[in-house]
Amino acid sequence: MPTRRSVLKGAAASAALPVAGCGGSSTMASYTALTEEIREPLAADADLMECVRFATLAANSHNTQPWRFDLSANKVAILPDLARRTPAVDPDDHHLHASLGCAAENLLIAARACGLHGAVEARADGAVAIAFDAGRPEATDLFAAIPKRQCTRSDYSGRAVTGSDLALLEQAAAGDGIRLVFLLEKPRIENVLEYVLSANTAQMDDDAFMSELKHWLRFNEAQALAARDGLFSACSGNPTLPGWLVPLVFPFAFTTSAENDRYAAQIRSSSGIAVFISARDDRAHWIEAGRSFQRFALKATALGIAHAFVNQPVEVPASRSEFASWLGLGAEERPDFIVRFGYAPPLPMSLRRDVRDILV
Ligand SMILES: Cc1cc2nc3c(=O)[nH]c(=O)nc-3n(C[C@H](O)[C@H](O)[C@H](O)COP(=O)(O)O)c2cc1C
């Protein structure tokens, strides 16, 4: 998908305007304080309700947080929140169910650190049900990485990831019916870039896609703090803008060619690309793919490796089938996500809604 995040860098530059957000540094301080509060460490004896806070720190498409949590004794059901669908970018709800998988994985890892071992079931109604039993507390490096993980949407340093770290990433991502393909050679990465640029252009030409994306963009701290969801420009390393300025600059500043240049620089500066592939194209596999991605992302974080999605070619249906044949996938396989990785300093963290607002 295009810019989810880069909109305002171009906007500010082309309009040659000062780019202070509403409220200035005190609002940014409130923003940062809230990102830290929602990521406070879990106590060793935390209960399932506390673990839900860690579940919500998972990656999720457009930061819609498309979930509700139903807690009872030793069970948690993560329900799809269909009011938070994004039908333009995700017409079959693939990303929505994958996001539930990401949250389920965080919940399993956090609960295990607190002595609760979970077993997952993908329910026919689209929910992910987890039943917990008491067990030995196991706080892994993936657990420690939960509050530090982020999608880092910036240029990377170009430094290669070592073979032993690639093996650790692959091992962490291993999942039932999911496989990972690494693309590390420059010509292969250039091929992926071509798919990204072509699908990005198609998305930016699509009014429904653009209007849905704008709905989830947060252009300044005040907007981000009010909603506690969506894509805040600072999380992509971009300047913030007062709300009144947005309609004046957005249509002129956000161009396909600037976005494509930006993706080219980001992909070319990455060490490699990982493609996540489901053996079958159904909800149970999409959830597993989300779980697999989340483990990959947490292991990457633990190893000091940054990551970000470049999913455009798997989001536009026509591109997805071309991309799948280029990869040589089997007829029943689906390429779920395309993730670039490498080395870069972190950007500001994203927000999440209050846990009390997402309980059933
Ligand atoms: C299924 C799925 C698809 C996503 N697709 C994209 C994407 O194409 N481009 C992108 O920049 N981020 C993508 N994201 C990342 C989310 O936007 C990100 O997780 C969310 O904004 C929260 O930010 P954080 O992961 O840094 O906490 C995707 C996440 C998921 C789980």
UniProtKB/TrEMBL annotation:
A GO molecular-function annotation: oxidoreductase activity
Taxonomic classification: Bacteria, Pseudomonadati, Pseudomonadota, Alphaproteobacteria, Hyphomicrobiales
Family annotation (PROSITE patterns): TAT
InterPro entries per the UniProt record, alphabetical: Nitroreductase-like (IPR000415), TAT_signal (IPR006311)
Protein name: Tat pathway signal protein
Record SUPFAM superfamilies: FMN-dependent nitroreductase-like (SSF55469)
Gene3D superfamilies recorded: NADH Oxidase
